[in-house]
Design brief:
Number of strands: 0
Structural class: mainly alpha
Oligomer: single chain
Largest sheet: none
Helix content: over 70%
Shape: globular
Radius of gyration: 20 Å
Amino acid sequence: LGPAVFGQMSYLNSIFQQIFSFLDLGFINYFYTRFASNSKDSLISTFYIIYFFAISGLIFLFTVVILTTDLWLVFSIGASEYFLYSFFWALLFTLTLIFDKCADALGLTVRAEKIRISNKIFFAFLLVFLLYSTDFNLRIYFYYMFALYLSLLIQFYFLFIGVNEKIFSQLREVLQKFKELFFEFLQNSKHLITLISLGSIAIVIDRWLLQFVGGDEQQGFYAFAYLLASICMIFTSAFIPLIWREITFNLSADNKPYL
């Protein structure tokens, strides 16, 4: 792809990822805590997935508005053709994070990781095939990532319904209690809202300043360096979900000696 194209993709993906995080209001943390303590509570999981698609709709409308006007120029980027691609990437990426939380809450972490590993191996071979058999470009790479995430999400979904077949199916009950559930989530997430909001805004400003001053190529070098730095987080990121799941589950069971 080259540093400039890679930088443009990384920049837009990061912006949309932070917009999703900003509108989530920290609800994902309360969702995980509540669902891990009672993984049979399909009302909570259905509400959160509905809320996620509601904010996704708002972000999609925002994207359409900036594309049909000159507002996209504010992002200091040379072309607008990849905005929608980045929106759908952020949507699928965030949905994958939610499904990761569901897998941990349902006690399916090991099986989910096996699915993830086999999925990555298959798509790694597919990527090599695409590199040598096509005129590889950013558009093809976006389609590749969409296929990767969709494949993972479908496999996760069938894994989940094998344990809790009603995990996302209580639509009518959620719509009746949507306001009540929303304020419950808001009440339990209010201490995180300011922190998460400021964090998302700071990241967006950092990336925008880098784009404004350095352009696509410097974004590419920054993104590559960030990926290299993330290698040290491989082991800690694997342990943290398991630790939090055990803490949440045993707190709800009042199992203080185990803790």
